[in-house]
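Hi everyone, sorry if this is the wrong subforum. Our group has a chain we'd like a structural model of before ordering constructs, and none of us has done structure prediction before. Sequence below.
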Amino acid sequence: MDTGDRGFDAALVGHMGPLSPPDLKPDLKPDISLLNGSGGGPFSPGNNCGPGSPGSGGFNSVVLQQQNALVVGGALGNGTGQQNLLVGGGSQQQQQQQQQQGSNGGGGGSGPNTPSNITQQYPPNHPLSGSKHLCSICGDRASGKHYGVYSCEGCKGFFKRTVRKDLSYACREDKNCTIDKRQRNRCQYCRYQKCLACGMKREAVQEERQRSSKFSMKSEEINSTSSVRDVVVDRFLEAEQIGEQKSGDNAIPYLRVGQNSMIPSEYKGAVSHLCQMVNKQIYQLIEFARRLPNFSNLPREDQVTLLRSGWNEMLIASVAWRSMEYIETERPPDGRNDGRVTIRQPQLMCLGPNFTLHRNSAQQAGVDSLFDRILCELAIKMKRLDVNRAELGILKAIILFNSDIRGLKCRKEIDQMREKIYACLDEYCKTQHPSEDGRFAQLLLRLPALRSISLKCIDHLNFLRLLGDKQLDNFIIEMLDTPL
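Answer:
Right subforum, don't worry. Here is the predicted structure as tokens:
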């Protein structure tokens, strides 16, 4: 038979290599905006992972000095939190300002470099007014000396989780990303390397774990809004990344092409491959949910109910986010540089690592309407917003903690948790994108479309008889009972 007579041929479907564990290597970079647009093949997280594990070095010390000068020069130089762009003269400008303050009667006998003078540069209501030290890594308020270095709760928690879980990261740039208060979540590789370069000790984390005594934090450290928010965002990002690292080899055939499936014979091979990939992603979504804050504290029945109801929406959100890489943009033909970008009609959807679906194949399979809705209502909107991986993880958590589902025992607790996730996303948008006033609302506006598209997908699965006989609930329970 000629290849043009088949719907899911290799040219149309894209790269459909076998789904073995190496195909599911983790993409440990949260920011999709840093991907180049060269196209060069389907999105494969493993292909973009640079060498560099948590134990490796290679962090540019010159960049570290420049970033420290930016952070300290900006935070201490003018008292407004704005960065001082004079990288080379940051410390000199500090001393001049401090000496000038001392000569004007604000001294009290302290030298220009004493902690008391640093504190005096801020008004009483300034976030840094009560702190004598800044975080050596990002420049936020330090809550104390952690693992040998003055650092904030966010960088302390990030370093501790990295060491305890032996996590590996990759940088999509030149391993010299700026790590400051606003951008500390954008590159985990460079953030970790900066922790090491600043003197954080891995052995201190291991020794802390062995100690039986626990030390209580000061109340002002616990109440640090930015630190608590940063820790929560890191938890969502970590859950998103670790979930995708799981191979899913033990996934059950919940979706499968059986004898009663309404799939033409020429499509069965490709659709069967797609079902295997979806089954593995369901496995990964359960791993993602298990690592979310407070999810494991819910009754087992509620955990199963939330996962059974939300897996399809979370999966579609991930598909839309992956497909952003394949959406092409172009500037206006008249050459105007007014910030507007034209989005070309998408032709490829990234269903999973090494698996892309072409528009022609979707049309021949009769799912072109779903194809267009996922790309136009979700992926293009995400592309315009430049949604990063942390925001994707938070959106998936909002989908999961849905208190409107019937049969929940702890409806009130689930609703409260969802409100906290809303607040976390709102604060994250304000901090990371202060000039985009409506970003929080625009992200939430994707949820109704996600719900509508997911219901349509379930209708298609039922019509095509792709839902297997295996009980999803039993599989979820088995996974939830497995130790993390």
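For your construct planning: The longest strand covers residues 348-352. Confidence is low (pLDDT under 50) at residues 1-131, 212-228.
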